[in-house]
Structure formats: C-alpha cells, structure tokens
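WARN no homologs supplied; continuing
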Amino acid sequence: MPAQLTSPETEPKHEQPPTTVNGDVRCALTGKQIHADEAYWAPPLVTTRELITTIWRTLLKNPGALGLILMAEQPNVPYAPDARAELGRRRSMEQVKLIGLLLLIAAVLVVPIVILVS
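OK structure emitted
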C-alpha cells in the first residue's frame, strides 16, 4: 500500500495535557482567594488599551509575530463564581470601546474620501 502524505492542516495536533490545579487560587478579577474546584476558568480579560499597546509594540519590534500574538489561544485563568457577572459586564464594555474605536478610525478614513469625491 502506498504511503500517504499529510499536509500540515490535516496532521493531528498534539496538545499538552491540561494542567491540574490543587489547592487555592486567586480570582483574576477580584483577587479573592478561591478553591480551584470552585473557580470559573475562562480566558483573561483583555482591555482595549492592552490590546492596542500590544499591537503597537509588536508592529514596532517584531511585525512577523503579530498574527501569532493575535490568534494564539490564551490560557484560562481562574475567576470567582460570584465575579462572573462583573466579568461579563467588563468584557461587554471593552467590546463597545473597541467597536467605537474601529468606527472612529473608519470615519476618519472615509469622510475625507467622500468629501473629495463630492
């Protein structure tokens, strides 16, 4: 039987086994100490400021790594169960800020073009 070649897209990914945490951890949002079994594990909260700063620094220092930084999977961090609503509210606010910033940039680029064409 002939050997089959696999492309990088079809090769199975070998992921590391999940990390097991025993004992107490601190909530990433409130700093409150919680037991690892009670924690709500989710990706970290990334603020608009942190995102823009990271993109800017990466563009200046190592533009080739921008895709890797933006698309890499982030490790989960612990949150207290009672902080889940606050986490959702903060994530929503950061999304609104980012959408507003992107709309502002689009307006700054589009308005002069529309004025020049008219």
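The chain has three helices and four strands.
OK
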